[in-house]
Write a structure and sequence with these properties.
Strand 1 and strand 2 (about 15-20) form a beta hairpin. Strands 2-1-4-5-6-7 form a six-stranded antiparallel beta sheet, with helices on one face. A six-stranded mixed beta sheet has the order 8-12-13-3-14-15, with helices on both faces. A three-stranded antiparallel beta sheet has the order 9-10-11. It is built from eleven helices and 15 strands. By secondary structure, it is an alpha/beta fold. Helices cover about 45% and strands about 25% of the residues. It binds adenosine-5'-triphosphate and magnesium ion.
């Protein structure tokens, strides 16, 4: 899978860009604040990733009302032209080969990418939200049904939080509470089921990557942690649904008393251990970085197993944060698919990698 060409209009600091890419390695270099990350973000956007922006309007150039992205994609030996039109005032429009798409999940059905940025190096040390986001980003790209369930769950969850919060002043709001709990249990069951199955795959792939990475010295352990009443997270969504619902019923009074949404898949975590010890608490800086890298590279391998093709790998500024041994490991591991690597100086990477070098200055390709 690869992106052969990209056109941008009014996207972040790119007023207009037309770029062609190498099928394998693309090194994007330039000084700080020139648009390297923005370029990766544009490629990520066409694959349905929301990377930095919480809202599409952040992607539109300051002072302009719309932005346009177009990518020529080769996937499953077919060509796809993916287009996105973003508007400040109205909804975005997404198209594949001229046909309108319903949502970003449909983009990821066609084109997939795995992004790796410096914050990801802290994936293991961060709170559970960062690891949930890792799971969500991976599974959303693989399973459109998961993306739908996740969006539905988030919508209901936000609504339920508001009901609980405002119920003191307006107790009648609580009449609708059970309806929201029911919807959350339904969507939540799908989420738990898919997360459990993804972690099962991850357990088959990530420890081997981590072991290679650490020269065979370290053993990576992974465990999915979800709502305590769910006896088997890999069970069918129907079974999980009933267990989630029972759990919510048992906590109904406590939720109303505390005005908080107490438990559910929104509190899930991926527990990471190194040699049997909780990585978050006991591992060194280097060990947690290695584990984070292993999780990301494992995700790329799982995509490949699932789709027969490597997703495009977007490496934003990570190499500079790694020691030479780990840099070399990453560069060896990423052979096979298309990769975009940003950095501030090109010479060192050019020696390590063969491919195309794109120099970016003030939102322009030089
Ligand atoms: P670094 O090496 O520091 O990571 P970079 O080349 O990755 O830098 P980017 O993050 O791509 O830099 O950002 C380049 C510039 O884009 C920034 O100066 C930022 O202010 C600008 N920018 C971000 N969003 C918009 C926008 N919506 N409209 C116009 N400019 C924007
Ligand atoms: Mg950057």
């Amino acid at each position: 899978m690869r992106i052969d060409a990209l056109t941008l209009d009014y996207f972040r600091n790119y007023t207009h860009l037309e770029a062609k890419f190498d099928p394998q390695v693309n090194v994007i270099y330039g000084d700080n604040a020139q648009g390297k990350t923005n370029l990766l973000e544009a490629v990520g956007y066409l694959s349905g990733l929301s990377h930095r922006a919480r809202f599409d309007k952040e992607l539109i150039q300051f002072g302009v009302d719309h932005a346009f992205l177009k990518g020529d994609i080769t996937a499953r030996e077919r060509l796809f032209v993916l287009e996105a039109e973003l508007n400040r005032g109205s909804r975005k429009e997404l198209r594949a080969n001229g046909v309108k798409l319903k949502n970003t999940a449909e983009l990821s059905g066609i084109f997939q990418s795995v992004l790796f940025c410096p914050e990801d190096l802290y994936l293991i040390r961060e709170g559970a939200a960062a690891r949930r986001k890792y799971l969500d980003d991976c599974i959303c790209q693989l399973r459109p049904r998961y993306a739908q369930a996740l969006a539905e769950y988030k919508r209901l969850h936000e609504h339920k939080i508001r009901i609980l919060r405002d119920s003191e002043e307006k107790p009648s709001l609580l009449d609708t509470l059970d309806e929201f709990s029911l919807g959350m249990a339904k969507a939540g069951a799908v989420i738990v089921h898919y997360r459990a199955h993804f972690v099962k795959r991850l357990k088959q792939v990530a420890p081997a990557v981590h072991s290679d990475f650490s020269g065979g010295h370290e053993q990576l352990g992974l465990r999915y942690e979800t709502v305590s009443t769910v006896t088997d997270p890999e069970a069918s969504p129907q079974v999980i649904f009933e267990q989630l619902l029972r759990h919510q019923e048992a906590h109904r009074a406590a939720e109303i008393a505390s005005r908080q949404c107490l438990s559910g898949p929104h509190k899930d975590d991926l527990i990471v251990e190194i040699d049997g010890n909780l990585a978050k608490t006991y591992s060194s800086q280097g060990q947690t970085r290695t584990a984070a890298l292993s999780l990301k590279l494992a995700a790329r391998e799982i995509f490949q197993q699932d789709t027969g093709e490597y997703p495009v790998l977007l490496l934003d500024d990570v190499l500079s944060e790694l020691d030479p041994k780990r840099q070399e490991f990453v560069l060896n591991r990423i052979q096979g698919g298309q990769v975009f690597i940003t950095c501030c100086e090109d010479d060192r990477l050019e020696k390590l990698l063969k491919g195309k070098t794109l120099y970016i200055k003030s939102g322009k390709l030089q």
